Amino acid sequence: MGFNFLRRQLNERERAVAERLPPGQYLTEKWPVLHYGSVPKVDLATWTFTLDGLVVEPRTLTYDHVKALPRKTVASDVHCVTRWSLLDSTWEGVPVSEVMKLVELKPEATHVMVHGEHGYTTNLSLDDFLRDENMLVDTRNGEPIPAEHGWPLRLFVPHLYFWKSAKWVRGFEFMAGDRPGFWEQYGYHMRGDPWAEERYGWQ
Fold first, then answer.
1. Non-local CB neighbours of 16 within 8 Å, separated by 6+ positions
2. Domains in the chain, ordered, with CATH?
3. Residue 122 CA to chain centroid, in angstroms?
4. pTM: predicted TM-score of the whole model, two decimal places
5. For position 34, what pLDDT does the model report?
6. Could you tell me what percent of the chain has a pLDDT over 70?
7. How many CB atoms within 10 Å of residue 23?
8. In this structure, are strands 111-116 and 121-125 parallel, antiparallel, or unpaired?
């Protein structure tokens, strides 16, 4: 359930795109910077990306390996749990589907824990994780994403609140069953569907 008492009147531009705004969201023209902790310093020469957990053979990828994978561009809106929505961006990167070609999941795998820098984690079901539009992105609107927004790679899962699109992502750990990631342990929703206002776990 949502917080109906927090509803506000939409402005003129918001009314024009109201069908694209989930409940309780407002439009932003800028891309707000929000994260816990400091922006990591990244050395691409030693940077790695791991695929482990419930896989037949774990893999460790270099930055060059990831960059050499097939790429695509997706036009998509994104929605933050702090109530801003950013419309009409183009995002470019490596589809999750291409990364998944590098490993074979064990039959009991149902979820993935996404690992980022500074020990950050967030959880996703495989149904949410394996959607066609999901990517490891490094480019927005034709420009490299800034370090404060997740460079060199951030996960991109646009159908869920944007905290699920982990910045500075460094690996996927496949799991049997779900468990909370960083913000989920502090009360955020285990899934985070903007259209259902799944902001907090007690809803």
1. none
2. 4-36+46-196 (3.90.420.10)
3. 9
4. 0.89
5. 61
6. 90
7. 14
8. antiparallel
